[in-house]
Design brief:
Elements: H1 5-23, H2 46-55, E1 63-73, E2 78-88, E3 92-98, E4 106-111, E5 114-119, E6 124-129, H3 130-137, H4 143-150, E7 163-168, E8 171-176, H5 180-188, H6 203-216, E9 219-225, E10 232-239, E11 244-253, E12 262-271, E13 274-286, E14 302-303
Parallel strand pairs: 6-14
Antiparallel strand pairs: 1-2, 1-13, 2-3, 3-4, 4-5, 5-6, 7-8, 8-9, 9-10, 10-11, 11-12, 12-13
Length: about 300
């Protein structure tokens, strides 16, 4: 059975999380919006919540630039560094990684159909298409999904799809219309369940459910939506066929004169044998262009092996 377009996007999201964690590795002041978790939310249909969430999206921008303090927690190490990020919508994403001393150690440029990477510590480079990037790094860089994550958009939310709506911790929670047992399985493979009063499946039933989910290419999407602004603050994607989860959380959205984008983005990826997470604290967010996206391979650099 061929996966749906949304399924293919989800698979890319997992690979992109792997890209962002190791690579994205005084400005406008954001204001964190706080909601009461115990207040009673009015009943709303899933269609209405989706409609309001899409209507709440900020206007599209052509250019985006920011500074980012990045903290990574990998299976074998913890790292912190600074980076500069520049985005030209539907064209290119440029990232420069700079440690505390201020000397660039790596640079990357992702376009619609190509990937370029400089490793200044090893004097090596990579230039190739998405197929070559997959063969070299095991990832499929998708510019559209990268820019959605950076701009705080609800990755994969599709008004043509059917969702169920629940109320949880002061938020509306949209869940894609997979069978209930698939949704429960998605919760059970997550490090730390999020459903209140949920009873975990027994191990054998969970294994059978995951096997059937794999046959269907079942993917469960969940979106946490703030009840006043209708901003999506969290996207959780569970790929049951591969027993993987990608979790993207947006916080500290700019208000007033600050650009209406998240100033804090948390990313995590988990599967049965590993868990990695990262946080981007963004400052100096600007939408003024044009932007320079310089990328030149020095003569002494050699191709990555």
């Amino acid at each position: 059975m061929n996966p749906r377009p949304m399924d293919r996007s989800a698979a890319r999201l997992f690979r992109l999380t792997l890209v962002l964690l190791p690579v994205l590795g005084p400005g406008c002041r954001p204001v964190k919006q706080v909601f009461q978790a115990d207040r009673e939310l009015p009943l709303r249909s899933a269609e209405k919540v989706v409609e309001n969430a899409l209507a709440a999206l900020p206007a599209g921008v052509r250019h985006y630039s920011a500074k980012a303090d990045v903290d990574l927690v990998m299976p074998d190490a913890t790292r912190s560094f600074r980076s500069a990020v520049r985005l030209v919508t539907d064209s290119a994403l440029w990232v420069s990684i700079t440690p505390a001393l201020g000397i660039e150690v790596a640079r990357a440029l992702v376009t619609m159909d190509s990937v370029k990477v400089l490793d200044r510590l090893k004097d090596t480079y990579f230039v190739g298409g998405r197929d070559s990037a997959w063969a070299r790094f095991g990832i499929d860089p998708d510019l559209d999904l990268l820019q959605q994550a950076l701009l705080g958009r609800p990755i994969g939310l599709d008004p043509r799809e059917k969702y169920r709506v629940d109320r949880e911790d002061g938020h509306y929670v949209l869940t894609s219309r997979e069978k209930r047992r698939f949704v429960r399985a998605a919760e059970d493979i997550l490090p730390g369940d999020t459903l209140a009063d949920d009873r975990d499946m027994k191990e054998r039933r969970l294994e059978r459910t995951l096997r059937k989910a794999g046959e269907r290419e079942a993917i469960v999407f969940r979106y946490w939506v703030e009840p006043d602004s209708f901003r999506v603050v969290r996207v959780l994607v569970s790929d049951l066929a591969r027993d993987q989860q990608a979790d993207v959380r947006y916080a500290e959205v700019g208000t007033g004169e600050a650009p209406p984008f998240p100033h804090r983005i948390s990313l995590s990826l988990s599967d049965p044998v590993r868990h990695a997470s990262g946080t981007l604290q963004l400052t100096r967010i600007d939408t003024i262009g044009p932007l320079q996206l310089p990328f030149r391979v020095p003569d002494k650099f050699v191709p990555m092996e």
